[in-house]
Amino acid sequence: MADLEPVPEDWERALAVVAHPDDLEYGASGAIARWTAQGKHVAYVLATRGEAGIDTLPPDRAGPLRVREQVAAAAVVGVDHVEFLDHADGVVEPGLPLRRDIAAAIRRHRPDVVITGNHHDTFPGGFLNMADHRVVGQAVIDAVRDAANRWVFRDLDLEPWNGVRFVAVSGSPRAGHAVDITDTFALGVASLREHRAYLAALSGEMAEPEPFLRREAERAGLRSGGGLATTFEVLVM
Q: In what order do the strands lie in the sheet with 177-180?
């Protein structure tokens, strides 16, 4: 019996805000491909350029490369707007500057839905999460409320936005919702494969996009009524 509810899809605009290039491609991009195919508009905002993510490349070379790979990955799933906030990869600091930058993006894009990554200490299965993911995920949740309050970050000179219906958290150990990605799974895999340099430097199961994503999608599908799926924790605002 299915224990995951469908993510609501009666909305038009989404903003995805995560820490690094590749964060969305490890699960959420299959759902994003489904949504853009429905005619929804999705934009990406990355807190960093991922410059500390490739051990074999110094940051000044890795950063521009990973930006190009992220733009290409987004295009595969129908996303043509990708922004980078230029916080330092690996050492993203929690606090008002980060919240301010994300609140500004929310006010500019005026989304119905905000997508982000796992802000909890662990991933499903108990694997430890990393600091950048936790910090950015929590800042996104806080910034949704910041963006709605006209008396917070008044220096932005942007009208407040209180139209976010919910935040969809990808990769959460507390997921209660899912999106059927049976028809867009291949696009999700293709989007992750665009991170060629990043994947080439990895080892282990996460370096192989198709089997890794398929295993996770099959697990989620078993909990959501069959097929392939990806999971989200839905926080209603």
A: 5-6, 177-180, 229-236, 166-170, 113-117, 13-18, 41-46, 82-84
Nearest CA to 112 out of 162, 163, 148, 146 is that of 163
Buried b (16+ CB within 10 A) or exposed e, 182-214: eebbbbbbbbbbbbebbbeeeeeeeeebeebbb
Cβ neighbourhood burial of 145 (10 Å; 0-12, 13-18, 19+): middle
Ranking 3-17, 100-114, 192-206 by mean pLDDT, the lowest is: 192-206
Give the C-alpha separation, 30 to 236, whole Å.
22
pLDDT at 65: 98
pTM value is: 0.97
Give CATH superfamily name and number for 5-236.
LmbE-like (3.40.50.10320)
